[in-house]
Write a structure and sequence with these properties.
heterodimer, A: 186 residues, alpha+beta, Glutaredoxin, 5-stranded mixed beta sheet, two-stranded antiparallel sheet, 30% helix, globular, B: 142 residues, mainly alpha, Cytochrome Bc1 Complex, Chain D, domain 2, two-stranded antiparallel ribbon, 6 helices, electron transfer activity (chain B)
């Protein structure tokens, strides 16, 4: 799964070809507790990322309903984290995100809500291969995809799932189990 | 022999369902279209089973707020910006307005909600909904 490049390099004087999987580049934002959340926060974890905004009237409630199912399923699993980036940082400050998370029944740090400069977040969206941008024609003025992105411990994108449906979330959870099992047998 | 008797007993029942009264047809139309509209405009937050989501989106199914039917009718069209208390629990998130919903849409959604979760067996007629909507539109303009 995931994007890959074929690279050639010199090893012991010989030219060898290898496959390099695409990696999520580094990022640095602020979470719902006003603490930094960076790529390092997810070291040694598999995680699921998505993009949303609190006042979004259309697909976000569906996505949060499904992500909450994922959260409940993997709650307290030390190998699993969740990461929701807001694409409306002007409204979705750390305090607003905290209130939202608490209302959703989220405690602790397993599910991170990230906010920061809008341009940085849009750029990060591209790095997950999902759309997140301003669009006057979209409800709420912002356009974003409804995907959940599964990232492994090596920061490789391992799968994309429809985060607006129960079936999409079911498929994601099944793949998360498979991925976790992969690490167990290593 | 027994089967034949049963079959004959079913005839009046079949005739009845085949020729529903005007009233029954109307009720069915309201309920079915209400269900479709609910799915499209309400279920994202309030969920298909009407039970809401945690402390984010209040329940409709089993909600004590249903006793304020006129407020519910206005809410569907105009949304709400103040916090709302449902079953003793406070919900702070605003509900967006749905200005695209016509009076008949609102009447059908109301019918669906109250038939499904409010113990009602009759429709909320569009005439009734229009009256309530007019009143709250005027109140909102003040």
């Amino acid at each position: 799964m995931g994007e890959r490049d074929v690279i050639t390099k010199e090893v012991d004087g010989k030219t060898v070809t290898d496959t390099a999987y695409y990696q999520i580049p580094g990022f640095r934002f602020t979470n719902q507790d006003s603490l930094p959340v960076t790529d390092k926060t997810f070291d040694g974890k598999i995680y699921v990322a998505d993009f949303f905004f609190i006042t979004c009237p259309t697909i976000c409630p569906k996505m949060k309903t499904q992500m909450k199912r994922v959260y409940d399923q993997f709650k307290n699993n030390p190998d699993v984290m969740l990461l929701s980036y807001t694409i409306d940082p002007k409204h979705d400050t750390p305090a607003v995100l905290k209130e939202f998370a608490t209302s959703l029944g989220i405690t602790g740090s397993q599910w991170q809500f990230a906010t920061g400069p809008k341009e940085e977040i849009f750029k990060t969206g591209k790095s997950y291969m999902v759309v997140a941008q301003e669009d006057a024609g979209a409800p709420g003025g912002l356009l974003h995809s409804g995907h959940f992105v599964l990232v492994d411990k090596e920061k490789h994108v391992r799968g994309m799932y429809d985060g607006t449906t129960e079936e999409g979330a079911d498929k994601l959870m099944a793949d998360m189990d498979r991925l976790l099992a992969e690490y167990k047998t290593k | 022999m027994r089967r034949r008797t049963l079959g004959w007993l079913l005839v009046p029942f079949l005739l009845q369902t085949a020729c529903q009264s005007q009233e029954e047809l109307k009720q069915e139309k309201y309920f079915v279209e209400g269900y479709q509209l609910y799915t499209e405009h309400c279920a994202n937050c309030h969920q298909t089973d009407g039970k809401g989501l945690e402390a984010l989106y209040p329940p409709i199914n089993g909600s004590d707020y249903l006793k304020n039917k006129e407020k519910v009718i206005c809410l569907i069209r105009y949304g709400q910006n103040e916090p709302i208390v449902v079953n003793g629990r406070r919900f702070n998130r605003p509900m967006p307005s749905n200005p695209q919903l016509t009076d008949i849409d609102v009447a059908e959604i109301t019918t669906y909600i109250y038939n499904k979760w409010g113990g009602e067996t009759v429709i909320t007629d569009v005439k009734e909904a229009s009256k309530v909507l007019d009143t709250c539109r005027v109140q909102r303009q003040r």
